[in-house]
Amino acid sequence: MPVTVSGLGGVTQIAAGVFHTCARLFDGSVQCWGYNANGQLGDGTATHRSLPALAAGLANVAEVSVGWFHTCARLNDGSVQCLGGNGAGQLGDGSTTPSLIPVTVGGISGATQLSAGEQHACVRLADSTARCWGANGNGQLGDGTTVNRPSPVAVSGLDDAIGIAAGYGHTCAQRYGTALLCWGYNNHGQLGDGTTTQRTLPTPVIDTPFITIQIFGDGFETGCDSTRRGHQPFSTRPRRTGSSVQVTPGLDCARRLPTGAGCDSGVHSGRFRKRAAQQFGLAQAR
């Protein structure tokens, strides 16, 4: 049965790892409990804790995420700090030295989302790109290699991310629209590409919903996302009235549809508006 974690109040976020758990409080502080052999609880010791302990060096935290033996926090200013085990460079400070106190992840500013995996971590930045660091034996950093990186590297070809999630040896991202990409370990098919082949670069998840890009009567490109309600067309540049294409996110697939077909809900915005066809592998949408 569930038990109440003692001594916690004002919790605004919780993150559970393999052997430890952390909670972010309303004041931007963090408390952690559980396994602590690598100092991942942030209390300056390597002593396991069965009750929450204050992560003393973390303040002004906007988001906390925990991995196997490390903990990372995104701060209000868009920087990231990590602590704990660092054998694969998962603290992102350019070293493989473990740390009982938070260290700043090098070269990261404007982080808007954070996700820690087993021995790696990734962030989405304000410009919709992503950076990852740490273990890379399965290509989970998405830089096209299997070399561990103690400092952040860019995820190759990803510049329109709206979400990112790091797992055990693999990572996935959502792009504008409904397109999903995954990369890294794939022994159980966790990348969703229909294979069990390891991928070192972002690879489309197959069988995601269709997106219709339709040209309405005003002669401007308009689109909608079939997974959402409340159709609100967007306009980008003039196109020939009365034509439309349907594309499968991430796949090189397009075919002409009747005007008005399948475009009944949702909104695309931002970068997707400008490059909808390109981002889904479509060279032209006429």
Strand content: 35-45%
Distance between the termini: 58 Å
Total count of helical runs of at least 4 residues: 1
> For the CA atoms, what is the radius of gyration?
21 Å
Helix content: under 10%
**Total DSSP E strands:** 20
Shape: globular
Largest sheet strand order? 1-2-3-4
Tell me the major beta sheet: 4 strands, antiparallel
Which blocks of ≥5 consecutive residues have pLDDT under 50? 210-286
Helix/strand class: mainly beta
Helices and strands, in order, run as: EEEEEEEEEEEEEEEEEEEEH
Mean pLDDT: 79
Structural account:
- This protein has about 290 residues and is mainly beta.
- About 5% of the residues lie in helices and about 40% in strands.
- The chain is built from 1 helix and 20 strands.
- The strands form 5 sheets. The chain has a 4-stranded antiparallel sheet with strand order 1-2-3-4, with no helix packed on it. A 4-stranded antiparallel sheet has the order 5-6-7-8, with no helix packed on it.
- The longest helix is centred in the C-terminal third of the chain and has 9 residues.
What is the structure about, briefly put?
This protein has one helix at residues 271-279; strands spanning 11-16, 20-25, 30-34, 49-54, 61-66, 70-75, 80-84, 99-104, 111-116, 120-125, 130-134, 149-154, 161-166, 170-175, 180-184, 199-204, 211-215, 221-225, 244-247, 254-256. The protein is 3% helix and 38% strand.
Q: Secondary-structure blueprint of this entry?
A:
Elements: E1 11-16, E2 20-25, E3 30-34, E4 49-54, E5 61-66, E6 70-75, E7 80-84, E8 99-104, E9 111-116, E10 120-125, E11 130-134, E12 149-154, E13 161-166, E14 170-175, E15 180-184, E16 199-204, E17 211-215, E18 221-225, E19 244-247, E20 254-256, H1 271-279
Antiparallel strand pairs: 1-2, 2-3, 3-4, 5-6, 6-7, 7-8, 9-10, 10-11, 11-12, 13-14, 14-15, 15-16, 17-18, 17-19, 19-20
